[in-house]
Amino acid sequence: MQLEIINRELNESIKKVMLPQAIRISCIYLKKFYPNSTFEALYEKIVFKSNTSLSFQKSEIDRIRFIEEEGVVKAELTLNFLGIFGSSSPLPSHYSEMVLDSLDEDMVLYDFLNLFNHHLQKFIYPIWEKHRYYIQYKKDLSDRFSKYALSFLGLHNQNKEHSKLKLQKLISAIGILSMKHKSSGTIKSILKHYLSHNEIEVIQCIPAKYKIPSWQQSSLGSNNITLGSDFLIGESIISKNSKFRVLLKNIKSHEIIDYSILGKKLEEIKSILTFSLNEQFEHEVCLDIKKEEKVSFILGEKNYLGINCWIGDLRDDEQIIMA
């Protein structure tokens, strides 16, 4: 009785949909009978047949019928195209007429030719799906295209469970991630997509202090005293060539912990920057917090002094360098 209800409800509107949609609808209904089966296993339970009518057909699907044979529920899809017989048959019309005659007799010819129709029409959906990544995409990235995309980034064999990178976010940025050299605009685009935060700036040429090794320090009358070549004064040097700052603007009060040492996003930023940059640049993460988002320190609340709450005047905006 349940199959009869499904058949009646589906066939009221099935002629309005295309074949790929009809296949996915069939798999959804089959999933109710086989909840633990994969899509590939459910697809094997679909039987394709051709419509014997010689009249002009206005749709791809003639009907869907769910049947039960020896305790196994299957879906029969009768198509109006790409068949050995019927209105779209490439064979002479008298072959289709022979099939029509067999319907009134033993249906042997009809069933025999449908064996070929089934194996021919079964190829349609895989071909259609092959060029539609949004259809074959799986959350665990086990689909074929995701494996190819991750291979371009050298991440195909990456342990997805223990990886610090969000691989799902990287696939859509495979083009710019594959570039050898990346500008600040490119890094900003990657971070916006990866962090799902639109207000990001990458500030270049941040001053950084570096200690000069003892063997490179100048020793008057001895080592490293050639002007314009290796002569340096002091034990350290200020450089603007190898450091940049990632400025996250308009951070909300509830997001501050996520970008701190207590959260996960700070580690995510470090991981994606390390992966994206071929050159080893030093970087720091800075949070731009509006005065409206600043919270006063209150004992007993989930506030962490020095991270997400303040003591004293809260009337000014503030920038906090987290790392």
From TrEMBL:
InterPro entries for this protein: T6SS_TssG-like
NCBIfam families for the chain: VI_chp_1 (TIGR03347)
Record-given protein name: Type VI secretion system baseplate subunit TssG
Origin species: Halarcobacter ebronensis
